Amino acid sequence: MPLRLPDKLPAIELLKHENIFVMDDSRAHNQDIRPLKIAILNLMPLKITTETDLIRLLSNTPLQLEISFMKLRSHTPKNTPIEHMMMFYRDFEQMRNEKYDGMIITGAPVETLDFEDVTYWDEMQDIFQWARTHVWSTMYICWAAQAGLYFHYGVPKYPLEKKMFGIFPQQMLEPQLPIFRGFDDLFMMPHSRHTELHRDDILARPELTLLAESKQSGVSMVMARGGREFFITGHLEYAPDTLDKEYRRDKDVRDDVELPLNYYRNDDPSQEPLVTWRAHANLLYSNWINYYVYQETPYDINAIT
């Protein structure tokens, strides 16, 4: 089944060129199916890029998903046209009384700030608490993973001496769980961040399960509440050229930018990136939707508590 997306969302045409089947609302209403409702709180600066990255992965499932985009009232994006935000996004307050089978909360370019210094932290706390009773399973990505773990479980973040930037091998610690069904012994994950979590802080909280980690990039996946919360510190959703764009953007304004590790062929930025994470990215999102959303969420969505 395809995804149900708002009419005229730019990602629809972009993904059709990749032969990914998506469906706009007008056509989807003709199908007599109870779609899974997925909310996406997109905090990344380039909204359309992140929308496309996530939809690309969510489309790799036989289930019909209805995607709704959430925005913050307390923050106005600077890098996305206001017309796009008004057409495709709704404020959290407009969605507060609705319930969702799944939710994704993305990273944000505020990780070097203390959580309490983020201008929209009050609203984020409200959303984190709301998700506990209005969403069956929530996936927190990068900064959102650190913020969610801090808010719900008091887990701190720590500054890194230099940016964690590149593609790093991850070791599963709970390979028997359905979230890893079909995975190889090792899987690769893109990272791009200036802060980290410490495994001892995770292990000190019995409510948390450390799912995967890396000798180089540290804690990468944490689970709580039997799969109703996943915290992922990297970016499996990234497109093949995302780190390349970030590297060249930063290199144009600074002279201390290092190459992303394990990314370019022969570590040569004049060559194409070597894509090593996409298969596991598709598996992870499909497993999340199938085993932790579709097979667990109540058929009556209003029964979610």
Task: Give a verbal description of the structure.
By secondary structure, this protein is an alpha/beta fold. Helices cover 30% and strands 26% of the residues. The chain contains 10 helices and 12 strands. Strands 1, 2, 3, 4, 5, 6, 7, 8, 9, 10, 11 and 12 form a 12-stranded mixed beta sheet that branches. The longest helix has 17 residues, at 278-294.
Radius of gyration, in angstroms, nearest whole number: 19 Å
Total count of helical runs of at least 4 residues: 10
- Helices and strands, in order, run as EHEHEHEHEHEHEHEEHEEEHH
The profile of the biggest β sheet is: 12 strands, mixed
Query: Which descriptor suits the 3D outline?
Result: globular
Report low-confidence residues grouped into runs of 5 or more.
Answer: 27-32
Distance between the termini: 27 Å
The overall pLDDT, averaged over residues, is: 92
Question: How large is the share of residues in beta strands?
Answer: 25-35%
By secondary-structure content and strand pairing, the structural class works out as alpha/beta
**Portion in helices:** 25-40%
Give the beta-strand count.
12
Key words describing this protein structure:
305 residues; alpha/beta; 12-stranded mixed β-sheet; 10 helices; 12 strands; 30% helix
Secondary structure blueprint with pairings:
Layout: E1 3-5, H1 10-16, E2 22-24, H2 25-28, E3 36-41, H3 47-58, E4 65-71, H4 82-88, E5 89-91, H5 92-95, E6 100-105, H6 121-134, E7 135-141, H7 143-153, E8 158-172, E9 186-196, H8 199-203, E10 208-214, E11 218-224, E12 229-232, H9 242-251, H10 278-294
Parallel strand pairs: 1-2, 1-4, 3-4, 3-6, 4-5, 6-7, 7-12
Antiparallel strand pairs: 8-9, 8-10, 10-11, 11-12
Helix pairs in contact: 1-3
